[in-house]
Amino acid sequence: MRRLGSAGTRRTVAACVEAGPLDFGAMPTYRAPRGTRDLLPVERAAFARLEAVAADLARRYGYAPIDTPLFEQSEVFERGIGAVTDVVEKELFRVLPSRGEERERWALRPEATAGIVRAYLQHGLQTWPQPVRLSLFGPMFRYDRPQAGRFRQFWQWDVEAIGDAGPAVDAELIELGLRFYAEAGLSDVQVLLNSIGDPASRPAYLEALTAYFRSHQRELPEPELARLATNPLRLLDSKDPAMAALVAAAPRSMDHLCAACRSHFEGLQAHLRALGVPVRLESTLVRGLDYYTRTAFEYYRVGEEGQQAALGGGGRYDGLAELLGGKPTPGIGFALGLDRVALALEGGGPAGAARGGLVAVVVGADPRDTATRLRLATDLRAAGIPARADLGEHRLGRQLEGAARDGAHFAVIVGDELADGQVQVRDLAAGSQHSTNVVDLARELTRSEGSHHHG
Ligand code: AMP
Asked: Which among 29, 319, 425, 444 would be 20 to 30 A from 310, CA to CA?
């Protein structure tokens, strides 16, 4: 580790990234809250790249961008997601306004679907051509126990198709998720698929499931026993390793589907076959949220089908709009966790843009003439060229070292000939240098930068 000295405070992002972590010498007073993290430039660049892949796919597949508030009335989540779920029981971040006049109870969004469906109903999106295809990229919040790949603030790409009962649109979405992973650089992602039926087929299945777990009551850990009375489906989703064998032998929802659900499930599989998307049927996949009907799916890297390793998941929620006070409206969506994708790509994936992407650094022979350097850099930036000036009062050699360390392609060197409207342009990689008119500088740098990339 290196100590942060006076020189260190002026270190550029690129130089710091290459040199590794700094030792600040003492513990900082404040840290980011547990389970949250700062995305420093390298990580932020990785996220920006994932966001660009998602945005491009959303455009190609016709999913229009939407944003909803980071917090909603708690009821949107309590009704939509279900009261007897981890997400609402334990993980909801409730927001307490500091003044008393607000009667509302708010919570930070733990996922995007409930808020998007709330917006769909609020703004009358039923009157748009159906289905309405929407895409959202943003942070979600869950007061969960932090661990590897599990944060209290994390990012999701969320996609919804509202107003189409499927099953063709279900296949479109499942394939879209896989394509995201492939284009992001993860080629070994597979889909696990299940159908959990609908309100018509659910009672018979829940009865079979409850009877099964009751017959194994003595093997159930305490919290699971309590849940058996309130929401037996949750037991299939149990994170308790002691439950694994019991869950594996439990009755399967896909064996208890009503005729309409069975034909929907078969239709979905036929569409996936037509797309050449292989799936693995997984009878214990029920997803953590209550509002799902019929289609449920999750994305895993091959060999990582553990409870904590899902890269993303989704499903159909034909009952959600009604739960939120709207007319019955079918819908399906997925949420892909970007933190886990970024972690999976670290090391193996395409390199992120660690450097600032500077084209030029303006340096000068007179250390104290920061004003001229700043003005020239400002003019270059106004002309669209990524540029900075050396604003420390360093001698020229040090300024040039800084420009090279930043990975800039050119140093623009200000000297006495500025009086004649001239500056020197040094190609930092080639080591060559020539003088040019200040009035031509932006045009020349733009041209040279083009040949740098393509030449
Ligand atoms: P879920 O809505 O719980 O199915 O989450 C969808 C995806 O979001 C998961 O597959 C994860 O990749 C990601 N995710 C969910 N919760 C967290 C969390 N606490 N930290 C990081 N990623 C998460």
From this structure: 319
**Tokens for 334?**
């997925």
Q: Which residues contact 19 (CB under 8 A, 6 or more apart)?
A: 2, 11
- Cα of 281 vs centre of ligand 1, distance in Å, is 21
In the numeric block, which tokens belong to residue 116?
Answer: 């998007």
pTM score of the predicted model: 0.84
| Model pLDDT for residues 278-294, shown as the tens digit of each residue | 999 998 888 656 678 99
Residue-wise pLDDT for 377-389, tens only, equals: 999 999 999 999 9
Q: How far apart are CA 414 and CA 403, in angstroms?
A: 14
Strand order in the sheet with 94-95: 71-73, 106-108, 94-95
User: Nearest to residue 115, comparing CAs of 390, 317, 357?
Assistant: 317
SS3 383: coil
Closest ligand 1 atom to residue 334 Cα is 6
To test the pocket of ligand 1, the residue of 36, 77, 116, 339 to mutate (highest count of ligand atoms within 8 Å of its CB) is 339
b/e 14-32 (16+ beta carbons within 10 angstroms → b): bbbeeeeeeeeeeeeeeee
Nearest to 358 by CA among 401, 387, 332: 387
Please state whether beta strands 331-337 and 153-162 pair in parallel, antiparallel, or not at all (unpaired).
Answer: antiparallel
